[in-house]
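Fold this complex.
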Amino acid sequence: MILDMRGINKSYVQGKMEVPVLHDVSFSMEEGEYVAIMGPSGSGKSTLMNIIGCLDKPSSGNFFLDGQDISRCSENQMSDLRLHKIGFVFQSFHLLPRQSALVNVEMPLGYAHVPKKERRERALRALDRVGLSDRVNFRPNQLSGGQMQRVAIARAIVNNPKLLLADEPTGALDSKSGAQVMELFQKLNEEGVSVLMITHDADIAAHAKRVVMIRDGMLLEKE
Amino acid sequence: MFENLRLAVQGIWSHKMRSFLTMLGIIIGIASIIAIVSTIQGTSEQIKEDLIGAGRNTVSITLYDGDSEAYFYDNSTVAPVISEDQKKKVRRLENVVDATFYYSRSYSTVYYLNDSFMGGTVLGVDGSYLDTAGYVIQTGRGFVQRDYDRFCKVALVDTNVVQSLFLGENPLGKVLEIEQQPFTIVGIITEPDDYLPKMENLSDYEEYFTDSMGKILIPDKCWPICYKFDEAQNVIIRADSTDNMSSAGKSVADILNANIKNQSQRTNYSYKADDIMERVRNMQRLSESTSQQLIWIASISLLVGGIGVMNIMLVSVTERTKEIGLKKAIGARKKTILWQFLTEASMLTSIGGLIGVLSGIGLSQVVSRLTGTPAAISVPAIVGSVVFSMLIGVIFGLMPSVKAANLNPIDALRSE
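Structure:
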């Protein structure tokens, strides 16, 4: 089991008020699954994604990522989990604008202290997997939106994460590029990558093999 | 580490103008410090050279009567005599290269034809006087062993005497009357140009070298013919190095003072060495304390520069919030981000420091051209300023870097 969440609660303190966001969320995911979490804005799906992505800690409840208890992790251990177990794909790509696609993809490997030569090889392989081997030295401003998102996906998978975590991956793309990205996710999932996608769009969520609804901080499984 | 340096260079290079303006405070501060230090050091060396003369390291050890120089112009004075034993001891001193002992008389009766020689000095010298005191023979010859052996009544005059007594006429072969004794002039001596100290604004120093009326030299063996047997002598020595001048002068004076009391019923006689080094040190201390104050003032510019760096780094952190958020999200540790920004800040100031050093050297060259004082480029000052500017980067970059490292990746990614 790659993800195992039991009785997760999360609330934020705003002024003197405690604002609850997640209520007793229990959710688990097997290795190799392709899951979409779907919900309208304000439903708590971003908060859930931040917790799953080890960017935030739950207020209470147990969360195991690949068998590791997150609530006991230090800040550095959280960084290492993000580095080795999770690949992030963001709605607005978040590429370094002045760097080539290759350098962008290499970046996580630098933090993992992979030797320079191997870094290059692995980054090239990742770019090849997303079908951009002819755009290796292009900068983000020379690429289309769809291509930029594929560079971001290459960056997410370059360190062989256990989980590909995508937050509205098609939100900033036209439908054609969006379809390409969905195809890519499909392909990566077939190659064995676990994919967890968060979206508000039912059409996009339909690409996943399992869809989970979130509403007002509570999860509803939908078959 | 290497990766950080590359990132830092990229960060600086991508905002060339801004980086340069940020560096400007550091550049100006370091440049003025380098310029001040090299100019002052140059001046300091110049002072030393001016006061000491070009490396001859001569020290005069003169007999004093109380606080004033001892003069002998009447026959009743009984003054201490330097024994042969003492002379040997002086010559054997470790730091003494050369020593000469001489009699001297001011207010002596000297005539050339009907003109009397007023105000000058007659010296009775041994064979090493010219070498030790730094005189060279301009025309004619110096004293030879034969002059001493046979008590030859020969004399050397310096160029001042040629002017004042002979009115520019060639004195070679002319006869001088010293205390009614005829002396034939066999040579003219002169001091090499570079020996004469150039500092003229020190009034007490002036009297040391301006006995401008001139000197007449006779062999010391002939001294008793004109004056007395067993007279006191003064000494000039040459030390083996400039730094040993003070100590060598003192040890010679100690040797000479040792048995003054045994010889003379008057005990206020004593030998004193001209301590030029002491004067040099005083002058140098003065100029160094001035430079210290100037450096403090220049440091204010460094402080302002450092604050500028902090300001720009804060702007840079704000600008790159998203980048920092992304880096943290994909697994960069806090420390990694901290080092990235610290490296950038200290590189910024180090480059500023380097440019500052170069412009400081240029500036000091310009100053030395304009004022005629030499500039000595000091390597420790250069190394020190580059290291110091790097430190400024670390100190003033710390706060922005910590701010960057502590950014919450969720908020950072969401920021627009």
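The longest strand of chain A covers residues 17-29.
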